[in-house]
Design goal:
The chain is α/β, with parallel strands linked by helices. It is built from 16 helices and 9 strands. The protein is globular, with a radius of gyration of 20 Å. The structure holds nicotinamide-adenine-dinucleotide (NAD) and fe (ii) ion (FE2).
Length: 402
């Protein structure tokens, strides 16, 4: 079949998604924001009548004591807790099953996720698995969840994924490492706390990479074919805040004002991309995560400029607008010049953050299969502004090899 004919089909499918997202109610969690807001959330959890809660987190966060105040606050409010700290970056079905077993053994009534996107996503799937009694692979895909999950609360400790407001959870098959997203509004937490003080100890590399993930969400949402006035507002705000504050938190992790700004920005980017979906950057980054365990944010950061180069002529005006809100306009430049300036600026940021332009792990021999999987993911899920075929995707991936 001619590629142009296929593209017509993909575009039709994406317009159906746009209508679905418009008509299906998408809840927004009650948000507590600012220094100490994680403790306000603990008080709200108690006020909801919760007697025993499962905390889903990772072992590193327990080790560095990030949960200490949260545990103390829950206890002070009379809420018992059980900790599941077995979540690892890019959580697997097994990790979700282990958390679910602990939840059942202890008759937990609710779930509190504390961590980056990995604990948040694992907790989302634990919450809906507890009430839907279905294997995880039957919940994966679009709108497969029938019952509401257990009451679910979230405290992000990275400013990256925006998972606290998105209706997606990404879990991986432990054998193939293939990421299988569960996409359903029932994965959205009831309440979340954006507490920048929990992020001041985030190492420099993770700060930069997760921040680039948030920026990628904002950009992919803004250039998506399914963008709306509402998503544009969030994407623009997120871009403006990230461009000013990400360099600050990478240089000085203890800048608590900039940390709080990043927490807000990553949430705004989440608000934008949950309705528009993402694009080729994420589609390729997910494969790099599956093949080489490249951290999500790093993979996005590396792929981002290549996809922007490719898409530039289809979204010149939009990229120019992003350049303007990023403070890059210095003269009466044309939109084309501004768009190029925006892409150049992203490359400069990557250099400043010590993120390489190529991925050392990427093997040429894997490229055809990586491209195939990325295009499949993108074409059936993401309303990209400019479609690419297999050979174009392969060419682009070759540029990312050393
Ligand atoms: N649901 C969504 O909408 C969505 C969107 C994008 C990405 N994701 C998923 O999120 C996952 C990535 O999440 P992530 O980038 O936030 O990283 P992560 O949760 O995998 O954490 C990365 C590392 O950072 C450490 N860490 C986290 N917070 C810390 C803190 N405050 N101080 C010190 N160390 C800290 C963790 O211990 C871990 O070692 C991927 O699985 C990705 O697919 C989900
Ligand atoms: Fe992401």
């Amino acid at each position: 079949m001619l590629f142009s004919l296929k593209v017509k089909g993909y575009k039709l499918l994406m317009s159906v998604f746009k209508i679905l997202v418009k008509i299906i109610p998408i809840p927004k969690p009650t948000l507590f924001t600012g220094a100490g807001s994680s403790l306000e959330l603990c008080s709200a959890i108690a006020q909801m009548g919760t007697r025993i809660i499962l905390i889903v987190t990772d072992s590193m966060l327990v080790k560095i004591g990030l949960l200490d105040e949260i545990k103390k606050s829950l206890s002070q409010h009379g809420v018992e807790y059980v900790i599941y700290d077995g979540v690892e970056p890019d959580p697997t079905y097994d990790q979700v099953e282990a958390g679910l077993s602990l939840l059942k053994e202890n008759n937990c009534e609710a779930i509190l996720a504390v961590g980056g996107g990995s604990p948040l996503d694992a907790a989302k799937v634990i919450s809906i698995s507890a009430t839907n009694h279905k294997p995880i692979n039957k919940l994966a895909g679009w709108f497969k969840v029938r019952q509401y999950g257990l009451p679910f609360f979230a405290i992000p400790t990275t400013a990256g994924t925006g998972s606290e407001v998105t209706f997606a959870a990404v879990v991986s098959d432990p054998v193939t490492h293939q990421k299988t997203p569960v996409i359903d509004p029932k994965t959205i937490p009831m309440m979340a706390a954006l507490d920048g003080t929990l992020m001041t100890g985030l190492p420099q590399t993770i700060t930069a990479e997760t921040g680039m993930d948030a920026l990628t969400h904002a950009i992919e949402a803004y250039i998506s074919n399914n963008s709306t006035n509402e998503t544009d507002r969030y994407a623009i705000a997120a871009t403006r805040i990230i461009m000013t504050n990400l360099p600050k938190v990478v240089n000085n992790g203890h800048d608590s004002e900039a940390r709080q700004n990043m927490a807000m920005a990553s949430c705004y980017a989440g608000m934008a991309f949950t309705k528009t979906a993402v694009g080729y950057v994420h589609a390729i980054a997910h494969q790099l995560g599956a093949y080489y365990q490249t951290p999500h944010g790093r993979a996005n950061a590396i792929v981002l400029p290549y996809i922007l180069d490719y898409s530039q002529d289809a979204v010149t005006d939009r990229l120019a607008q992003l350049a303007i809100v990023s403070g890059l306009q210095t003269d009466k430049e044309t939109n084309q010049q501004l768009a190029q300036k925006f892409i150049n600026h992203i490359r400069t940021m990557l250099k400043q953050f010590n993120i390489p332009e190529q991925l050392e792990a990427l093997k040429k021999v894997d490229i055809p299969l990586i491209a195939k999987a990325a295009l499949k993911e993108a074409h059936f899920n993401y309303p990209v502004p400019k479609y690419m075929d297999q050979s174009e995707c392969e060419k682009l991936l070759y540029k990312m090899t050393i």
